[in-house]
Structure formats: structure tokens, C-alpha cells
């Protein structure tokens, strides 16, 4: 179906994380989405190899989710959650508690992954303060980590270009990242080498003293920095060290939550339980923006018990628990469960792995990484023009009807969990052709 699409001007919109000048000189637009596909204004289908941006786990515009949002909008468009309730927020929190790792059953709502990261960090600080340990204020992130763009998440984040906004939050330090192409190139699933990188936390404890450290925040699988899979045993070791030193462990599961690894959460997949867990994106299949933070019950109880004011935690957002988002979230959980999508991701993951690794001998490919329905293909940067090669492959794939995501010289893939084998083949074949086109 050809749509009458006439953008009047591209000037006013300051686009996020986009080369604005280059994009506006040569825009790529989509106007509709359904299932595994986006559609351009001319009606050309684009196979979505990214689930939006790690977002639409059940695929696009799923009728059940669409109808739930429509119904909610007509019924209760908005209600504040400040000292007032509406049933869907409580229902959604309860439903989430049933899917989350056991014990992580006190859930706050936000509107994004960035807000979830900052909320989680503040929860950690509030918890220690409530225990009479206000001296535990340091926050530990990791090199190449991504926890959104608010000041807390930016501070614990470890992507250099995202951090160039001055001194940021004080008292932050970072663990080393775990990408080790020299030892682990072309690993299938979890890389074998690097568990000892978790011991860097011991050094930070020696440097700062455990009595000053509140929390460690990591993505179980790092996404935005280019798909970094944790070495075997690494997350477990980090958990042990956090427990030993009375440091809270926060898993940022904004991309790994809701089946991406073939288990409900990465915490299940790795059998490692954090104290606090952040979510967004597939929380609502991204149909309405929403984030959430789950805390161990003891954290909630401690903060509440220690409070000497009626409000126990001075934090929250105007749209926390927004009725439309809760409706989308409940319908998403129903869809995930009824279609068995987390199990489906686990079943198709070996096929995904084989298909991705068939690109090993492709031009410029220096590493391929995968876990669950995540894939990363790292290219040798073109001398003098880093990122150019990957962007050209991105363009070639889009022109051939496949959407991929690139970050630096890394192609990052995260298709909807409803993907079929033939569609996996199509994505891989299109990337293969794209790689051959670029110099
Ligand atoms: N934490 C993680 C782990 C994320 O991946 C956020 C927090 C922030 O979420 P919001 O909703 O505030 O954007 C994210 C976001 C990429 C890419 O290229 C991924 C994200 C953002 C930008 C680019 O993979 N994820």
C-alpha cells in the first residue's frame, strides 16, 4: 500500500543518537510495522533484525497489545501514582513478580531504561542509609557499560563519548570490560577466558574500602557497546564478591529481560541473582514507553522501616505506572506466555548461532559473538575511517530490505523472538552480501 507521505521539513526534530546532518541529507523513514517487518512510505517491507532497538520481543503491532492500549486510553487516560492508585499498576507489578527471579518482588515503575538505572542507584543508596551505612555511597560501573543517559547512568556508564559532560556524579569507579578478542574471538555462547576480570572488584575494594561502596551495576550481556558476552563464571564471581563485601549487585536487564536469552531474565539464564534488577523496552513490547525496577523484598522493607517521614522514598515520576503502559505490559506478558516466546527463543538459538557463525570467513569480520537471540559481528575498522564500514553495511542491508543495528564497527542483532528460520537465513545472507559490497 502506497502512503501519501510528505514530510514538510526535517529541520525541527533534534534526533537522538543520530548523525542529524547526514540523516537529514539522506533520510530513511518507516511509517508502519507488523510482526517481523517495518514498512517504508512506499510500502516496501523491511525485515527487522533488531526488534526496534532490543524492544519488540513479540514482534510489531501485536493486536492483543494494541487493543489493550486502546481500551485503557478510553477507560482511564491518566492517574497519578502519587498517593493514589489504579488497579492495573498493582496487577502489573504482581504479574511481574511472578516472572522475575524469586525474591525480587518489590517493583517501582519508571518511563525508560535510563530512569530505571537512576532509580536503582538511588534505591541502593537509600537502602544503605536506612541501615545506618550512609558512608556506603560509591557506585561501581564497568568500562563500555551502558545504563542510559541520565546523570547516574551516564556516570556509571563506560562508553567514552557518552561521558563528555563534565564531572558527572562523584564517587564512581569502573570495573574493566570483558571483551577480549585476542583470547575469545569467535566464541560460541559464553567465552571461556576472563572470569578473573571480576576480581578487579577486590582491587576497587582495597582502593576505596568496602565501607564506602554501595553498589555494582552491570549489564549481564552488554548491548549498546557492541554485544559483550560475559566470560563463563564471571557474573557468579561478581555476585560472590558483592555478597562478601556487603555491596548490592544491580543487573541492568533492559535488553536481556523478557526472553532475549531464552529464559525470562539473564538472571535465570546465568543462575545468578542480583539484589536489584532494571527493565524497560520489552517490558511493554515497547508499545508504550515504560521502565521498571525490581528490588529484593528486604531492601523495600528496610527503607520503609527506617523512614521517619510518611513518604519513605523521595523518588518517582509523574507517569510512574501510567495506565496505558500497564495495560501494554500486562498484554505483553500474556502474549509472551501464551506463545511460549521465551522457550521459543531458547529453541531457535542454536540455529541462530550456526547461521551467524557462517559469516566467519566473510570479508573484514574479526569476531562473531552470540547468546540467546543476540548476535554481534565485529568488523575490522577501515583505516582512517572507523565506523564507516559498518554504516555502509547497514545502508546496504536497509536497501536490500533488512534492518540491522551498528555501533562503532560492530553489527548488533536482536530480532523479535517470533523470528522464523527462513528469516534468520535472510538476515545472514543480506549481511553477507552487504559485507562483500563494502571495501
Ligand atoms: N540500560 C541498558 C542496558 C540499555 O541497553 C538503557 C539502559 C536506557 O534505556 P532508555 O529507555 O532510557 O533508552 C538501555 C538502552 C544500542 C542501543 O545501540 C541500546 C540502547 C540505547 C541506545 C542504543 O544497542 N539501550
Describe this structure in words.
The protein has 15 helices and 15 strands. The protein is 37% helix and 16% strand. It has helices at 20-25, 51-54, 63-75, 87-99, 113-130, 151-156, 181-184, 200-208, 234-244, 266-270, 297-306, 323-338, 341-357, 388-399, 421-437; strands spanning 32-34, 37-39, 45-48, 104-110, 138-142, 172-175, 213-218, 248-252, 276-279, 291-296, 365-371, 374-379, 402-403, 405-407, 410-413. By secondary structure, it is of the alpha/beta class. The strands form three sheets. It has a seven-stranded mixed sheet with strand order 4-10-9-8-7-5-6, sandwiched between helices. Strands 1-2-3-13 form a four-stranded mixed sheet. The protein has a four-stranded antiparallel sheet with strand order 11-12-15-14, with helices on one face. The model has no long low-confidence stretch (mean pLDDT 97). Helix 4 packs parallel to helix 12 (323-338), helix 5 packs across helix 11 and helix 14 packs across helix 15 (421-437). It folds into two domains: 20-58 and 340-437, Aspartate Aminotransferase, domain 1; 65-338, Type I PLP-dependent aspartate aminotransferase-like (Major domain) (Aspartate Aminotransferase, domain 2), CATH 3.40.640.10. Bound molecules: 3-[O-phosphonopyridoxyl]--amino-benzoic acid (PXG). 3-[O-phosphonopyridoxyl]--amino-benzoic acid binds at residues 17, 53, 112-114, 117, 146-148, 219, 223-224, 252, 254-255, 280, 405, 407, 412. The site of 3-[O-phosphonopyridoxyl]--amino-benzoic acid has 19 residues, from helix 5 and strand 14.
Amino acid at each position: 500500500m502506497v502512503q501519501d507521505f510528505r514530510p514538510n521539513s526535517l529541520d525541527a526534530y533534534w534526533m537522538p543518537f543520530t548523525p542529524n546532518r547526514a540523516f537529514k541529507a539522506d533520510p530513511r523513514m518507516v511509517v508502519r510495522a507488523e510482526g517481523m517487518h517495518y514498512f517504508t512510505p512506499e510500502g516496501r517491507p523491511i525485515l527487522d533484525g533488531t526488534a526496534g532497538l532490543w524492544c519488540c520481543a513479540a514482534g510489531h503491532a501485536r493486536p492483543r497489545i494494541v487493543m489493550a492500549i486502546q481500551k485503557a486510553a478510553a477507560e482511564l487516560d491518566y492517574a497519578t501514582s502519587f498517593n493514589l492508585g489504579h488497579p492495573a499498576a498493582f496487577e502489573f507489578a504482581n504479574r511481574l513478580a511472578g516472572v522475575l527471579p524469586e525474591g525480587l518482588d518489590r517493583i517501582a515503575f519508571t518511563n525508560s531504561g535510563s530512569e530505571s538505572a537512576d532509580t536503582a542507584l538511588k534505591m541502593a543508596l537509600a537502602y544503605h542509609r536506612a541501615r545506618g551505612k550512609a558512608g556506603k555511597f560509591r557506585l561501581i560501573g564497568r568500562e563500555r557499560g551502558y545504563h542510559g543517559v541520565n546523570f547516574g547512568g551516564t556516570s556509571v556508564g563506560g562508553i567514552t563519548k557518552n561521558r563528555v559532560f563534565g564531572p558527572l556524579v562523584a564517587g564512581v569507579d569502573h570495573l574493566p570490560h570483558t571483551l577480549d578478542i585476542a583470547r575469545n574471538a569467535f566464541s560460541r555462547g559464553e567465552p571461556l577466558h576472563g572470569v578473573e576480570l571480576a576480581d578487579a572488584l577486590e582491587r576497587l575494594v582495597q582502593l576505596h574500602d568496602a565501607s564506602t561502596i554501595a553498589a555494582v551495576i552491570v549489564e549481564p550481556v552488554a548491548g549498546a557497546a557492541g554485544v559483550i558476552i560475559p566470560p563463563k563464571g564471571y557474573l557468579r564471581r561478581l555476585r560472590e564478591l558483592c555478597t562478601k563485601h556487603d555491596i548490592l549487585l544491580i543487573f541492568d536487564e533492559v535488553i536481556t529481560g523478557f526472553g532475549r536469552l531464552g529464559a525470562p531474565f539473564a538472571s535465570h539464564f546465568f543462575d545468578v541473582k542480583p539484589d536489584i534488577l532494571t527493565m524497560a523496552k520489552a517490558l511493554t513490547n515497547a508499545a508504550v514507553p515504560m521502565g521498571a525496577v525490581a528490588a529484593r523484598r528486604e531492601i523495600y522493607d528496610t527503607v520503609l522501616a527506617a523512614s521517619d517521614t510518611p513518604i519513605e522514598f523521595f523518588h518517582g515520576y509523574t507517569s510512574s505506572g501510567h495506565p496505558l503502559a500497564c495495560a501494554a505490559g500486562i498484554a505483553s506478558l500474556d502474549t509472551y506466555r501464551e506463545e511460549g516466546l521465551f522457550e521459543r527463543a531458547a529453541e531457535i538459538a542454536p540455529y541462530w548461532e550456526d547461521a551467524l557463525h557462517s559469516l566467519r570467513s566473510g570479508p573484514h569480520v574479526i569476531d562473531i559473538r552470540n547468546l540467546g537471540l543476540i548476535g554481534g559481528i565485529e568488523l575490522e575498522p577501515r583505516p582512517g575511517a572507523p565506523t564507516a564500514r559498518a554504516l555502509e553495511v547497514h545502508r546496504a542491508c536497509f536497501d536490500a530490505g533488512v534492518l540491522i543495528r551498528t555501533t562503532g564497527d560492530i553489527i548488533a542483532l536482536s530480532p523479535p523472538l517470533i523470528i522464523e528460520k527462513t528469516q534468520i537465513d535472510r538476515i545472514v545472507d543480506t549481511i553477507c552480501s552487504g559485507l562483500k559490497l563494502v571495501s
